[in-house]
Protein backbone atom coordinates (compact mmCIF):
# COMPACT_ATOMS: atom_id res chain seq x y z
CA UNK A 1 0.00 0.00 0.00
CA UNK A 2 2.78 2.36 1.02
CA UNK A 3 4.41 1.85 -2.39
CA UNK A 4 1.15 2.19 -4.27
CA UNK A 5 -0.05 5.52 -2.85
CA UNK A 6 2.50 7.76 -4.66
CA UNK A 7 1.74 6.05 -7.98
CA UNK A 8 -1.99 6.59 -7.45
CA UNK A 9 -1.31 10.23 -6.59
CA UNK A 10 0.64 10.59 -9.82
CA UNK A 11 -2.06 8.93 -11.95
CA UNK A 12 -4.67 11.30 -10.51
CA UNK A 13 -2.69 14.30 -11.76
CA UNK A 14 -2.21 13.12 -15.35
CA UNK A 15 -3.92 15.25 -18.02
CA UNK A 16 -4.67 12.28 -20.27
CA UNK A 17 -5.99 14.26 -23.25
CA UNK A 18 -2.86 16.42 -23.43
CA UNK A 19 -0.51 13.50 -22.89
CA UNK A 20 0.42 12.72 -26.54
CA UNK A 21 1.23 16.37 -27.24
CA UNK A 22 3.35 16.72 -24.11
CA UNK A 23 5.21 13.47 -24.69
CA UNK A 24 6.23 14.47 -28.21
CA UNK A 25 7.47 17.94 -27.15
CA UNK A 26 11.22 18.61 -27.64
CA UNK A 27 11.88 18.89 -23.88
CA UNK A 28 10.50 15.40 -23.25
CA UNK A 29 12.07 13.77 -26.30
CA UNK A 30 15.49 15.30 -25.54
CA UNK A 31 15.33 14.26 -21.89
CA UNK A 32 14.22 10.71 -22.70
CA UNK A 33 16.98 10.27 -25.26
CA UNK A 34 19.64 11.72 -22.94
CA UNK A 35 18.48 9.54 -20.08
CA UNK A 36 18.63 6.34 -22.12
CA UNK A 37 22.00 7.24 -23.63
CA UNK A 38 23.64 8.29 -20.37
CA UNK A 39 22.23 5.44 -18.27
CA UNK A 40 23.39 2.81 -20.78
CA UNK A 41 26.81 4.46 -21.07
CA UNK A 42 27.07 4.58 -17.28
CA UNK A 43 26.18 0.88 -17.04
CA UNK A 44 28.88 -0.04 -19.57
CA UNK A 45 31.45 2.11 -17.76
CA UNK A 46 30.41 0.67 -14.39
CA UNK A 47 30.80 -2.87 -15.78
CA UNK A 48 34.22 -2.12 -17.25
CA UNK A 49 35.51 -0.76 -13.95
CA UNK A 50 33.24 -2.52 -11.46
CA UNK A 51 33.67 -6.18 -12.47
CA UNK A 52 37.49 -6.19 -12.17
CA UNK A 53 37.10 -4.23 -8.94
CA UNK A 54 34.65 -6.80 -7.57
CA UNK A 55 37.03 -9.60 -8.53
CA UNK A 56 39.89 -7.81 -6.79
CA UNK A 57 37.82 -7.34 -3.64
CA UNK A 58 36.57 -10.93 -3.61
CA UNK A 59 39.68 -12.83 -4.64
CA UNK A 60 42.81 -10.89 -3.78
CA UNK A 61 43.88 -10.41 -0.21
CA UNK A 62 45.79 -7.14 0.04
CA UNK A 63 46.29 -4.57 2.80
CA UNK A 64 43.61 -1.87 2.74
CA UNK A 65 41.01 -4.12 1.15
CA UNK A 66 38.31 -3.12 3.65
CA UNK A 67 39.11 0.53 3.10
CA UNK A 68 38.89 0.15 -0.68
CA UNK A 69 35.60 -1.72 -0.32
CA UNK A 70 34.27 1.08 1.89
CA UNK A 71 35.33 3.73 -0.61
CA UNK A 72 33.78 1.87 -3.53
CA UNK A 73 30.48 1.44 -1.70
CA UNK A 74 30.45 4.98 -0.27
CA UNK A 75 28.13 6.41 -2.98
CA UNK A 76 25.42 3.99 -1.78
CA UNK A 77 25.17 5.92 1.49
CA UNK A 78 26.36 9.37 0.47
CA UNK A 79 23.64 11.86 -0.49
CA UNK A 80 23.95 12.22 -4.28
CA UNK A 81 24.29 16.01 -3.96
CA UNK A 82 27.40 15.49 -1.84
CA UNK A 83 28.73 13.10 -4.46
CA UNK A 84 28.06 15.70 -7.15
CA UNK A 85 29.83 18.41 -5.15
CA UNK A 86 32.79 16.10 -4.55
CA UNK A 87 32.95 15.35 -8.28
CA UNK A 88 32.84 19.08 -9.00
CA UNK A 89 35.73 19.76 -6.60
CA UNK A 90 37.76 16.91 -8.09
CA UNK A 91 36.86 17.02 -11.78
CA UNK A 92 35.72 20.64 -12.23
CA UNK A 93 37.72 23.01 -14.41
CA UNK A 94 39.80 24.08 -11.42
CA UNK A 95 39.57 20.73 -9.60
CA UNK A 96 42.43 18.56 -8.40
CA UNK A 97 42.15 16.26 -11.41
CA UNK A 98 39.93 18.36 -13.66
CA UNK A 99 42.34 21.32 -13.61
CA UNK A 100 45.36 19.48 -15.09
CA UNK A 101 43.01 17.59 -17.43
CA UNK A 102 41.66 20.89 -18.76
CA UNK A 103 45.14 22.40 -19.12
CA UNK A 104 46.44 19.37 -21.01
CA UNK A 105 43.50 18.49 -23.23
CA UNK A 106 41.07 21.38 -23.07
CA UNK A 107 38.44 18.89 -21.91
CA UNK A 108 35.76 20.21 -19.54
CA UNK A 109 33.67 17.51 -17.84
CA UNK A 110 30.97 19.56 -16.05
CA UNK A 111 28.12 20.81 -18.27
CA UNK A 112 28.77 18.03 -20.80
CA UNK A 113 27.26 14.63 -21.56
CA UNK A 114 30.44 13.09 -20.10
CA UNK A 115 29.65 14.85 -16.86
CA UNK A 116 26.21 13.22 -16.83
CA UNK A 117 27.70 9.78 -17.50
CA UNK A 118 30.36 10.20 -14.80
CA UNK A 119 27.82 11.34 -12.21
CA UNK A 120 25.55 8.40 -13.05
CA UNK A 121 28.45 5.93 -12.96
CA UNK A 122 29.63 7.28 -9.61
CA UNK A 123 26.30 6.69 -7.88
CA UNK A 124 25.34 3.44 -9.64
CA UNK A 125 28.57 1.40 -9.77
CA UNK A 126 28.37 0.22 -6.13
CA UNK A 127 25.25 -1.81 -7.03
CA UNK A 128 27.29 -3.77 -9.56
CA UNK A 129 30.33 -4.21 -7.33
CA UNK A 130 28.28 -5.38 -4.36
CA UNK A 131 26.31 -8.00 -6.35
CA UNK A 132 29.26 -9.35 -8.32
CA UNK A 133 31.55 -9.45 -5.29
CA UNK A 134 28.88 -11.36 -3.37
CA UNK A 135 28.52 -13.86 -6.21
CA UNK A 136 32.28 -14.39 -6.49
CA UNK A 137 32.59 -14.96 -2.77
CA UNK A 138 29.73 -17.45 -2.78
CA UNK A 139 31.23 -19.32 -5.69
CA UNK A 140 32.66 -22.75 -5.01
CA UNK A 141 36.11 -22.24 -6.46
CA UNK A 142 36.68 -25.98 -6.86
CA UNK A 143 35.02 -25.55 -10.27
CA UNK A 144 37.74 -23.13 -11.23
CA UNK A 145 40.45 -25.43 -9.91
CA UNK A 146 38.93 -28.29 -11.84
CA UNK A 147 39.07 -26.22 -14.98
CA UNK A 148 42.68 -25.30 -14.29
CA UNK A 149 43.76 -28.89 -13.64
CA UNK A 150 42.20 -29.88 -16.94
CA UNK A 151 44.65 -27.56 -18.63
CA UNK A 152 42.59 -24.40 -19.06
CA UNK A 153 44.50 -21.12 -18.81
CA UNK A 154 43.43 -18.31 -16.47
CA UNK A 155 41.60 -16.49 -19.23
CA UNK A 156 39.78 -19.62 -20.33
CA UNK A 157 38.75 -20.39 -16.74
CA UNK A 158 37.42 -16.86 -16.33
CA UNK A 159 35.55 -16.97 -19.61
CA UNK A 160 34.27 -20.56 -19.57
CA UNK A 161 33.81 -21.24 -15.85
CA UNK A 162 33.70 -18.15 -13.63
CA UNK A 163 31.65 -15.76 -15.78
CA UNK A 164 28.92 -18.30 -16.66
CA UNK A 165 28.60 -19.21 -12.97
CA UNK A 166 28.13 -15.61 -11.85
CA UNK A 167 26.04 -14.64 -14.90
CA UNK A 168 22.72 -14.37 -12.99
CA UNK A 169 24.24 -12.07 -10.37
CA UNK A 170 26.07 -10.07 -13.01
CA UNK A 171 22.79 -9.64 -14.88
CA UNK A 172 20.98 -8.53 -11.74
CA UNK A 173 23.81 -6.15 -10.87
CA UNK A 174 23.72 -4.61 -14.34
CA UNK A 175 19.97 -4.07 -14.14
CA UNK A 176 20.19 -2.43 -10.71
CA UNK A 177 23.07 -0.27 -11.92
CA UNK A 178 21.15 0.82 -14.98
CA UNK A 179 18.02 1.56 -12.95
CA UNK A 180 19.98 3.66 -10.46
CA UNK A 181 21.71 5.51 -13.30
CA UNK A 182 18.35 6.22 -14.97
CA UNK A 183 16.92 7.74 -11.80
CA UNK A 184 20.04 9.72 -10.92
CA UNK A 185 19.34 13.37 -10.06
CA UNK A 186 21.36 15.04 -7.29
CA UNK A 187 24.89 14.34 -8.45
CA UNK A 188 23.92 15.14 -12.03
CA UNK A 189 22.42 18.58 -11.42
CA UNK A 190 25.29 19.46 -9.07
CA UNK A 191 28.12 18.22 -11.27
CA UNK A 192 26.82 18.33 -14.84
CA UNK A 193 24.38 21.24 -14.64
CA UNK A 194 21.06 21.44 -16.41
CA UNK A 195 20.69 22.22 -20.11
CA UNK A 196 18.01 20.81 -22.38
CA UNK A 197 19.49 18.54 -25.04
CA UNK A 198 22.92 18.35 -23.41
CA UNK A 199 22.68 17.49 -19.71
CA UNK A 200 18.97 17.61 -18.85
CA UNK A 201 17.99 13.99 -18.18
CA UNK A 202 14.44 12.88 -17.30
CA UNK A 203 14.72 13.45 -13.53
CA UNK A 204 16.16 16.94 -14.10
CA UNK A 205 13.42 17.75 -16.60
CA UNK A 206 10.82 16.63 -14.03
CA UNK A 207 12.41 18.81 -11.36
CA UNK A 208 12.50 21.92 -13.57
CA UNK A 209 9.03 21.31 -14.99
CA UNK A 210 7.54 20.90 -11.50
CA UNK A 211 8.25 24.58 -10.93
CA UNK A 212 6.96 25.91 -14.23
CA UNK A 213 4.79 23.40 -16.03
CA UNK A 214 3.14 20.79 -13.86
CA UNK A 215 1.40 18.89 -16.69
CA UNK A 216 4.79 18.18 -18.29
CA UNK A 217 6.28 17.20 -14.94
CA UNK A 218 3.48 14.71 -14.36
CA UNK A 219 3.75 13.30 -17.88
CA UNK A 220 7.52 12.87 -17.51
CA UNK A 221 7.07 11.20 -14.14
CA UNK A 222 4.57 8.81 -15.67
CA UNK A 223 7.11 7.92 -18.37
CA UNK A 224 9.73 7.22 -15.69
CA UNK A 225 7.38 5.01 -13.69
CA UNK A 226 6.29 3.04 -16.78
CA UNK A 227 9.79 2.59 -18.20
CA UNK A 228 11.23 1.50 -14.86
CA UNK A 229 8.33 -0.84 -14.11
CA UNK A 230 8.44 -2.41 -17.57
CA UNK A 231 12.15 -3.06 -17.36
CA UNK A 232 11.94 -4.51 -13.88
CA UNK A 233 9.07 -6.84 -14.83
CA UNK A 234 10.68 -8.02 -18.06
CA UNK A 235 14.07 -8.58 -16.48
CA UNK A 236 12.71 -10.20 -13.36
CA UNK A 237 11.61 -13.10 -15.54
CA UNK A 238 15.01 -13.39 -17.11
CA UNK A 239 17.66 -12.49 -14.59
CA UNK A 240 16.34 -11.26 -11.34
CA UNK A 241 15.23 -14.57 -9.82
CA UNK A 242 18.02 -14.17 -7.31
CA UNK A 243 16.66 -10.86 -6.02
CA UNK B 1 21.05 -4.65 19.35
CA UNK B 2 17.96 -4.12 17.26
CA UNK B 3 16.00 -2.86 20.26
CA UNK B 4 18.87 -0.45 21.02
CA UNK B 5 18.71 1.05 17.54
CA UNK B 6 14.94 1.33 17.72
CA UNK B 7 14.99 3.21 20.99
CA UNK B 8 17.65 5.61 19.66
CA UNK B 9 15.44 6.33 16.66
CA UNK B 10 12.36 6.81 18.84
CA UNK B 11 14.11 9.18 21.22
CA UNK B 12 15.53 11.09 18.25
CA UNK B 13 12.08 11.57 16.75
CA UNK B 14 10.63 12.74 20.07
CA UNK B 15 13.44 15.23 20.65
CA UNK B 16 13.13 16.70 17.17
CA UNK B 17 9.40 17.27 17.74
CA UNK B 18 9.70 19.28 20.93
CA UNK B 19 12.56 21.63 19.83
CA UNK B 20 13.32 22.68 23.39
CA UNK B 21 9.93 24.24 24.14
CA UNK B 22 10.36 27.22 21.83
CA UNK B 23 7.60 28.05 19.37
CA UNK B 24 8.69 27.25 15.84
CA UNK B 25 8.04 29.79 13.08
CA UNK B 26 8.65 28.31 9.64
CA UNK B 27 9.65 30.99 7.12
CA UNK B 28 9.93 30.00 3.45
CA UNK B 29 12.26 32.49 1.78
CA UNK B 30 13.79 32.81 -1.69
CA UNK B 31 17.37 31.54 -2.00
CA UNK B 32 18.61 35.05 -2.80
CA UNK B 33 17.38 36.17 0.64
CA UNK B 34 19.60 33.66 2.47
CA UNK B 35 22.02 36.15 4.07
CA UNK B 36 19.47 38.91 4.65
CA UNK B 37 17.09 36.51 6.37
CA UNK B 38 19.83 34.89 8.42
CA UNK B 39 20.38 38.38 9.90
CA UNK B 40 16.62 38.92 10.37
CA UNK B 41 16.29 35.50 12.04
CA UNK B 42 19.03 36.27 14.56
CA UNK B 43 17.65 39.74 15.37
CA UNK B 44 14.04 38.52 15.69
CA UNK B 45 15.02 35.61 17.95
CA UNK B 46 17.07 38.03 20.01
CA UNK B 47 13.94 40.10 20.65
CA UNK B 48 11.73 37.02 21.07
CA UNK B 49 13.78 34.39 22.94
CA UNK B 50 10.86 31.93 23.05
CA UNK B 51 10.62 31.81 19.26
CA UNK B 52 12.66 29.61 16.96
CA UNK B 53 12.62 30.99 13.41
CA UNK B 54 13.27 28.16 10.97
CA UNK B 55 14.31 29.23 7.47
CA UNK B 56 13.26 27.11 4.53
CA UNK B 57 15.36 28.50 1.67
CA UNK B 58 14.93 27.56 -1.98
CA UNK B 59 14.04 28.80 -5.43
CA UNK B 60 10.84 30.88 -5.13
CA UNK B 61 9.05 28.66 -7.62
CA UNK B 62 9.94 25.52 -5.65
CA UNK B 63 8.76 27.16 -2.43
CA UNK B 64 5.48 28.12 -4.12
CA UNK B 65 4.92 24.50 -5.16
CA UNK B 66 5.58 23.37 -1.59
CA UNK B 67 3.08 25.90 -0.23
CA UNK B 68 0.45 25.05 -2.86
CA UNK B 69 0.89 21.40 -1.88
CA UNK B 70 0.24 22.25 1.77
CA UNK B 71 3.68 22.84 3.32
CA UNK B 72 3.21 24.13 6.89
CA UNK B 73 5.05 27.46 6.37
CA UNK B 74 3.88 30.52 8.34
CA UNK B 75 5.54 33.24 6.25
CA UNK B 76 6.44 33.33 2.56
CA UNK B 77 9.03 35.76 1.17
CA UNK B 78 9.33 35.41 -2.61
CA UNK B 79 11.71 36.93 -5.12
CA UNK B 80 8.94 38.01 -7.45
CA UNK B 81 5.37 39.22 -7.31
CA UNK B 82 3.93 36.84 -9.91
CA UNK B 83 4.87 33.86 -7.74
CA UNK B 84 3.21 35.50 -4.71
CA UNK B 85 0.11 36.16 -6.84
CA UNK B 86 -0.13 32.41 -7.57
CA UNK B 87 -0.24 31.73 -3.83
CA UNK B 88 -2.74 34.59 -3.32
CA UNK B 89 -5.10 33.32 -6.02
CA UNK B 90 -5.06 29.89 -4.39
CA UNK B 91 -6.51 31.67 -1.33
CA UNK B 92 -3.54 30.80 0.86
CA UNK B 93 -2.52 34.29 2.03
CA UNK B 94 -3.64 35.47 5.47
CA UNK B 95 -3.25 39.13 4.50
CA UNK B 96 -2.27 40.96 1.27
CA UNK B 97 1.42 40.67 0.40
CA UNK B 98 3.70 43.69 0.85
CA UNK B 99 6.92 44.46 -1.01
CA UNK B 100 9.71 44.67 1.56
CA UNK B 101 12.89 44.88 -0.53
CA UNK B 102 14.23 45.38 -4.03
CA UNK B 103 17.26 44.01 -5.81
CA UNK B 104 19.14 44.38 -9.09
CA UNK B 105 21.08 41.99 -11.29
CA UNK B 106 24.85 41.78 -11.67
CA UNK B 107 27.23 39.51 -13.54
CA UNK B 108 29.29 37.30 -11.23
CA UNK B 109 32.67 36.08 -12.50
CA UNK B 110 35.37 34.00 -10.79
CA UNK B 111 38.05 36.12 -9.07
CA UNK B 112 40.37 37.63 -11.65
CA UNK B 113 37.80 37.37 -14.46
CA UNK B 114 39.99 35.05 -16.54
CA UNK B 115 37.55 34.99 -19.44
CA UNK B 116 37.58 38.79 -19.69
CA UNK B 117 33.84 39.31 -19.28
CA UNK B 118 32.92 42.96 -19.88
CA UNK B 119 29.12 42.93 -19.90
CA UNK B 120 25.96 41.22 -21.09
CA UNK B 121 27.29 41.05 -24.68
CA UNK B 122 29.74 38.36 -23.60
CA UNK B 123 26.84 36.01 -22.87
CA UNK B 124 26.60 35.44 -26.65
CA UNK B 125 30.14 33.97 -26.78
CA UNK B 126 29.71 30.21 -27.36
CA UNK B 127 33.28 29.32 -26.32
CA UNK B 128 32.63 30.45 -22.73
CA UNK B 129 30.90 28.43 -20.00
CA UNK B 130 27.91 30.53 -18.99
CA UNK B 131 25.10 29.95 -16.54
CA UNK B 132 21.71 31.45 -15.76
CA UNK B 133 18.98 30.52 -13.30
CA UNK B 134 16.33 28.31 -14.95
CA UNK B 135 13.27 29.96 -16.48
CA UNK B 136 10.46 30.15 -13.96
CA UNK B 137 12.97 30.96 -11.22
CA UNK B 138 12.87 34.76 -10.66
CA UNK B 139 16.59 35.38 -11.24
CA UNK B 140 16.33 33.36 -14.46
CA UNK B 141 13.33 35.29 -15.77
CA UNK B 142 14.92 38.64 -14.87
CA UNK B 143 18.25 37.68 -16.47
CA UNK B 144 16.49 36.67 -19.68
CA UNK B 145 14.56 39.98 -19.65
CA UNK B 146 17.83 41.89 -19.23
CA UNK B 147 19.53 39.94 -22.04
CA UNK B 148 16.57 40.52 -24.33
CA UNK B 149 16.57 44.22 -23.48
CA UNK B 150 20.27 44.33 -24.37
CA UNK B 151 19.61 42.42 -27.60
CA UNK B 152 21.80 39.46 -26.61
CA UNK B 153 20.96 35.86 -27.51
CA UNK B 154 22.76 33.93 -24.76
CA UNK B 155 24.82 30.75 -25.33
CA UNK B 156 23.88 29.17 -22.00
CA UNK B 157 25.60 26.02 -20.69
CA UNK B 158 23.46 25.40 -17.64
CA UNK B 159 20.14 26.54 -16.16
CA UNK B 160 20.57 26.25 -12.41
CA UNK B 161 17.61 25.59 -10.10
CA UNK B 162 18.38 28.58 -7.84
CA UNK B 163 20.69 31.54 -7.66
CA UNK B 164 22.98 30.13 -4.96
CA UNK B 165 23.65 26.96 -6.96
CA UNK B 166 24.62 29.17 -9.91
CA UNK B 167 26.85 31.35 -7.74
CA UNK B 168 28.71 28.33 -6.33
CA UNK B 169 29.59 27.13 -9.82
CA UNK B 170 30.94 30.59 -10.69
CA UNK B 171 32.87 30.68 -7.41
CA UNK B 172 34.50 27.30 -8.18
CA UNK B 173 35.55 28.61 -11.58
CA UNK B 174 33.50 26.01 -13.40
CA UNK B 175 31.49 28.77 -15.05
CA UNK B 176 33.06 31.86 -16.63
CA UNK B 177 30.08 34.00 -15.69
CA UNK B 178 26.55 33.88 -14.35
CA UNK B 179 23.81 36.48 -13.93
CA UNK B 180 22.87 36.76 -10.26
CA UNK B 181 21.63 39.47 -7.89
CA UNK B 182 23.76 42.36 -6.69
CA UNK B 183 23.21 41.10 -3.13
CA UNK B 184 24.67 37.68 -4.01
CA UNK B 185 27.89 39.27 -5.21
CA UNK B 186 28.06 41.30 -1.98
CA UNK B 187 27.45 38.15 0.09
CA UNK B 188 30.34 36.36 -1.66
CA UNK B 189 32.67 39.36 -1.87
CA UNK B 190 36.22 38.16 -2.50
CA UNK B 191 34.99 34.78 -3.76
CA UNK B 192 33.44 36.21 -6.92
CA UNK B 193 33.97 39.50 -8.77
CA UNK B 194 31.14 41.73 -9.97
CA UNK B 195 30.70 43.06 -13.49
CA UNK B 196 27.91 45.67 -13.24
CA UNK B 197 24.92 45.71 -15.58
CA UNK B 198 23.84 49.19 -16.66
CA UNK B 199 20.58 50.48 -15.16
CA UNK B 200 18.78 50.87 -18.54
CA UNK B 201 18.74 47.12 -19.13
CA UNK B 202 18.76 46.05 -15.47
CA UNK B 203 15.28 45.16 -14.21
CA UNK B 204 14.32 45.79 -10.59
CA UNK B 205 13.43 42.66 -8.61
CA UNK B 206 10.68 43.30 -6.04
CA UNK B 207 10.38 40.94 -3.08
CA UNK B 208 6.91 40.49 -1.53
CA UNK B 209 6.26 38.97 1.90
CA UNK B 210 3.03 37.64 3.41
CA UNK B 211 1.57 35.59 6.26
CA UNK B 212 0.14 32.27 5.10
CA UNK B 213 -3.50 31.59 5.96
CA UNK B 214 -3.11 27.95 6.98
CA UNK B 215 -0.45 28.58 9.63
CA UNK B 216 -1.31 28.02 13.28
CA UNK B 217 1.01 30.90 14.25
CA UNK B 218 -0.87 33.83 12.66
CA UNK B 219 0.05 36.45 15.30
CA UNK B 220 3.67 35.45 15.46
CA UNK B 221 3.87 35.38 11.67
CA UNK B 222 2.40 38.92 11.51
CA UNK B 223 4.97 40.04 14.09
CA UNK B 224 7.77 38.65 11.93
CA UNK B 225 6.44 40.39 8.81
CA UNK B 226 6.13 43.66 10.75
CA UNK B 227 9.70 43.21 11.97
CA UNK B 228 10.97 42.75 8.39
CA UNK B 229 9.21 45.98 7.35
CA UNK B 230 10.36 47.91 10.45
CA UNK B 231 13.35 50.32 10.30
CA UNK B 232 15.43 47.73 12.16
CA UNK B 233 14.60 44.96 9.69
CA UNK B 234 15.16 47.28 6.75
CA UNK B 235 18.62 48.22 8.08
CA UNK B 236 19.60 44.55 8.25
CA UNK B 237 18.46 44.05 4.66
CA UNK B 238 20.21 47.24 3.47
CA UNK B 239 23.48 45.95 4.96
CA UNK B 240 23.20 42.98 2.60
CA UNK B 241 22.70 45.27 -0.38
CA UNK B 242 18.91 45.14 -0.72
CA UNK B 243 17.12 48.33 -1.84
CA UNK B 244 14.14 49.86 -0.04
CA UNK B 245 10.69 48.85 -1.36
List keywords for this structure.
heterodimer, A: 243 residues, mainly alpha, MetI-like fold, 77% helix, B: 245 residues, D-Maltodextrin-Binding Protein, domain 2, 2 domains, five-stranded mixed β-sheet
Write up what this structure looks like.
The complex is a heterodimer of chains A (243) and B (245). Chain A has 243 residues and is mainly α. Helix content of chain A is 77%, strand content 0%. Chain A has one domain: MetI-like fold (Orthogonal Bundle), CATH 1.10.3720.10. Chain A is built from 12 helices and no strands. The radius of gyration of chain A is 21 Å and the shape is globular. In chain B, 40% of the residues lie in helices and 22% in strands. Chain B has 9 helices and 10 strands. Chain B has a 5-stranded mixed β-sheet. Chain B is elongated. Chains A and B meet through helix 11 of A and helix 3 and strand 7 of B.
| Strand content range of chain A | under 5%
Remind me, CATH topology of the largest domain in chain B? D-Maltodextrin-Binding Protein, domain 2
Across the major sheet of chain B, the strand order is 2-1-3-10-4
Number of strands of chain B: 10
Structural class of chain B, by secondary structure, is alpha/beta
Number of domains of chain B: 2
- Strand elements of chain A, count: 0
Q: Oligomer, anyone?
A: heterodimer
User: Could you estimate the helical fraction of the residues of chain B in percent?
Assistant: 25-40%
Q: What are the segments of chain A in which pLDDT stays under 50 over at least 5 consecutive residues? A: none
CATH class placement of chain A: Mainly Alpha
Termini Cα gap of chain A: 21 Å
**H/E element string of chain A?**
HHHHHHHHHHHH
- Could you name the CATH class of the largest domain in chain B? Alpha Beta
Cα radius of gyration of chain A in angstroms: 21 Å
How many structurally independent domains of chain A? 1
Tell the overall outline of chain B.
elongated
Give the integer mean of the pLDDT values of chain A.
89
Instruction: Count helical runs of chain B.
Output: 9
Biggest contact? A-B, 22 and 23 residues
What name is given to the CATH topology of chain A? Answer: MetI-like fold
Amino acid sequence: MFFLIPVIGLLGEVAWSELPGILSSPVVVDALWLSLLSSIAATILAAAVGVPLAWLLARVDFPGRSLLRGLVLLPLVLPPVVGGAALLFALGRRGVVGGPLHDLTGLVLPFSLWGVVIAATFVSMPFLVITVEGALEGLDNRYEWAGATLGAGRWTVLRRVTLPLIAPSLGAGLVLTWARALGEFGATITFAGNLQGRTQTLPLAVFVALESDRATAVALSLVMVLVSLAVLIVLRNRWLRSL
Amino acid sequence: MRRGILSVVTVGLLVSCSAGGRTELLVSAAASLADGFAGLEAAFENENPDVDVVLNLGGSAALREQILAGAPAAVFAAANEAIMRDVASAGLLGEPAQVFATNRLAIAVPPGNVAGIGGLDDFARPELLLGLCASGVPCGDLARAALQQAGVVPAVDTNEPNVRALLTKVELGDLDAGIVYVTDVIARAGLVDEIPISDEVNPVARYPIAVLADSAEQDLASDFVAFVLSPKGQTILAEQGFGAP
